Amino acid sequence: MTRPLRSLLYVPGDKPRAIEKARTLGMDAVILDLEDAVAPEHKAAARENVRAALRTPFACPVLVRVNAPGSEWEHADREMALIAGVDGLVLPKVERAQSVTEPHLRVPLWAMIETPLGVLNAPAIAAAPGVAGLIAGANDLARALRTRPHPERTPLLYALSAIVLAARAAGKLPIDAVYNDVRDPDGFARECGQGRALGFAGKTLIHPGQVDAANAAFGVADGEAEAARALIAAWDAARAEGRSVATYRGALVEQMHVDEARENLALWEAGQSG
């Protein structure tokens, strides 16, 4: 199994000290941000900061969020990132599959779904060649939908589930949106739990203090790994004995349960090695 992507930390490109600190953190991937986190007057400096930072390898995959198509910084951002050798590009406000197929960017692409049109076209976007996954952009999406803030994200549940459905149907990874209040760890933990329940593979983050909670919420605990091993052992034992039915803890075990257990075990092992 490839490295899990439970936690993806945004780091503003115009903050070189924050970029250097990110090298010491335990997130599964870092997103060096040239878009929303950087004011227009700092765009050029941020691009040079990111270029310089990429000369030294990180301990985790590095993605770069470039500025939106049609912006004056778009082409310079993409050229810099491609030459520097990033592990992927995060494309903001993707609304159509053509936005990810026409540029021929030659690196894995992460399409941000941040608008109603993006949600409606998410299946085609996710299925496009080169797309590694979809990232929910809840802040812009909520604004576009004219929703009101809600602690359970109820107004956004349809859109969030649509993003998960589109990504999973295409065999790609869905990544949950950021949680804005860095002073509310309990709220962040609840939203991580909700995101995991909806089917997201991981979460984008805006603060280093959110990394551990995201890794725990979207990872597999030691106890879950042990249970997965025991279920697989029960299945294998039944097969070896020629029995057509296996049970574990009193419940019938089917192939889908074994597949899930193996997936969880692989995720746990990947997390341990990461």
TrEMBL record:
One of its GO terms (molecular function) is magnesium ion binding. Keywords: Lyase, Magnesium, Metal-binding. Substrate binds at residues 65, 114. Residues 6-208 form the HpcH/HpaI aldolase/citrate lyase domain. One of its GO terms (biological process) is oxaloacetate metabolic process. Its cofactor is Mg(2+). Mg(2+) binds at residues 114, 140. PANTHER family: CITRATE LYASE SUBUNIT BETA, LYASE BETA SUBUNIT, PUTATIVE (AFU_ORTHOLOGUE AFUA_4G13030)-RELATED. This is Citrate lyase subunit beta / citryl-CoA lyase. It comes from Deinococcus reticulitermitis. The lineage of its organism: Bacteria, Thermotogati, Deinococcota, Deinococci, Deinococcales.
